[in-house]
């Protein structure tokens, strides 16, 4: 695979199908039946065992990392229960593997010489030590790749102890078997991956097997199957509890409805009286609302009439004050006119009386008249100014 294809697959796995606006890839959804549900859960045997001696080839269903990313995002909000489909798929695959293991065991039993139960137990002990040594060597290689030197050294010490035990077990097995049959290769079938293991395999061969991709892939598949069984059992139990709860709620509602219907059928008079009371209470509440509305309307009308009467009285008082001011001005004008008339009459009488007097008296009288006329004009001016100020 080229570097560009690897980058594209990495982006699909991280961001999903709609990472660059490509609508053609969105024609198929992760919930489609054509999509492999085991691939969505990262446990499809076609992916796990690719490149091994038991490579299964390409899966018949769709495998897409972008669809897996879409499923991981959507599964946070909704449970699609794809674990059941993946569990069925892995169960069928592991069942086939177990059948092959049993067939290989029968074939070995037919081809190899018959041995006693005691010798078979000693051979089984050698096989167990071989398996233990192989697993420990695989662990040493893994720790060395991770850079954990101290832990790998501790595991190597355990390997040396297991090798010593193996030598002792082989010596016991050799002593219990004749030389001719001991030289024959004794095989054993691996219970995990159904591969053949030799009794006299060296440590390098055992480490390659137990640390190989085939054996570890089968271990991963079997562990994933156990995890899926546990998850499916928990979800099924949860669903069953929810169903029971809903069923109990429905039964409770049905019992309540039945009880109400029975009570209505037994006491029709009470039900009618209750309905009559309800109708009466509703009519009473409506009547109260109407009364409150009418009272509020009357209050508003009274308030408006009071405000209008107040405004009228204020305008009437203003008109009264203005009429009083006008009458006062008129009375002032009349009094000033009468004063002028009285002055004119008095001056005429004086003129008549002063005709018989001396010319000096006449001159004095003329001067007095001129002075009085001047005073009268000044008073007239003052009164006219006061009238103009009042009108203003």
Automatic annotation (TrEMBL):
Q: Does the keyword Signal apply?
A: no
Where is the sequence biased in composition, kind Basic residues? 258-321
One Gene Ontology cellular component annotation held by this UniProt entry: nuclear speck
GO terms in the biological process aspect are: mRNA splice site recognition
Q: Where is this region: Disordered?
A: 247-392
The answer, when asked if Transcription is one of the entry's keywords, is: no
Compositional bias annotation for Basic and acidic residues: 247-257, 337-370, 377-392
Compartments where located: Nucleus speckle; Nucleus, Nucleoplasm
User: Which ranges of the sequence are coiled-coil?
Assistant: 94-172
Alphabetized UniProt keyword annotations: Coiled coil, mRNA processing, mRNA splicing, Nucleus
Q: State the source organism's domain of life.
A: Eukaryota
What GO MF terms are annotated? Answer: enzyme binding; mRNA binding
Give the protein's biological function.
Answer: Binds to RNA via its Arg/Ser-rich domain.
> Into which family does the record put it?
Belongs to the Luc7 family.
Please describe the quaternary structure of this protein: Interacts with SCNM1.
Record's protein name: RNA-binding protein Luc7-like
Q: Which gene encodes it?
A: LUC7L2
């Amino acid at each position: 695979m080229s570097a560009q294809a690897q980058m594209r697959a990495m982006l699909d796995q991280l961001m999903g199908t709609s990472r660059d606006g490509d609508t053609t890839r969105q024609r198929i959804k992760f919930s489609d039946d054509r999509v492999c549900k085991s691939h969505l859960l990262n446990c499809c045997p076609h992916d796990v065992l690719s490149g091994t001696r038991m490579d299964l080839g390409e899966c018949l269903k769709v495998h897409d990392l972008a669809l897996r990313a879409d499923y991981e995002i959507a599964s946070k909000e909704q449970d699609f229960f794809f674990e059941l489909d993946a569990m069925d798929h892995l169960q069928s695959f592991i069942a086939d593997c177990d059948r092959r293991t049993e067939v290989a065991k029968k074939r070995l039993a037919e081809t190899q010489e018959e041995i006693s139960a005691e010798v078979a137990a000693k051979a089984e002990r050698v096989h167990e030590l071989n398996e233990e040594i192989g697993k420990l060597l695989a662990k040493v290689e893994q720790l060395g790749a991770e850079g954990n030197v101290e832990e790998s050294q501790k595991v190597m010490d355990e390997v040396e102890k297991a090798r010593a035990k193996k030598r002792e077990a082989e010596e016991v097995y050799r002593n219990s078997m004749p030389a001719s049959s001991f030289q024959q290769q004794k095989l054993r079938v691996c219970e995990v991956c159904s591969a053949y293991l030799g009794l006299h395999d060296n440590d390098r061969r055992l480490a390659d097997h137990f640390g190989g991709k085939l054996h570890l892939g089968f271990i991963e598949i079997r562990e994933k199957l156990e995890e899926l069984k546990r998850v499916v059992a928990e979800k099924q139990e949860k669903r069953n509890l929810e169903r029971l709860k809903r069923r109990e709620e429905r039964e409770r509602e049905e019992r309540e409805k039945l009880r109400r219907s029975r009570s209505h059928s037994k006491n029709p008079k009470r039900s009618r009286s209750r309905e009559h009371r309800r109708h009466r209470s509703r009519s009473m509440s409506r009547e109260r609302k109407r009364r409150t509305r009418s009272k509020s309307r009357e209050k508003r009308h009274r308030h408006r009439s009071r405000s209008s009467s107040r405004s009228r009285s204020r305008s009437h008082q203003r008109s009264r004050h203005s009429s009083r001011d006008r009458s006062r001005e008129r009375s002032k004008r009349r009094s000033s006119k009468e004063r002028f008339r009285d002055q004119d009459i008095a001056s005429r009488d004086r003129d008549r009386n002063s005709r018989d007097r001396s010319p000096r008296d006449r001159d004095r009288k003329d001067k007095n008249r001129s002075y009085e006329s001047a005073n009268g004009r000044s008073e007239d001016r003052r009164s006219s100014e006061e009238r103009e100020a009042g009108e203003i």
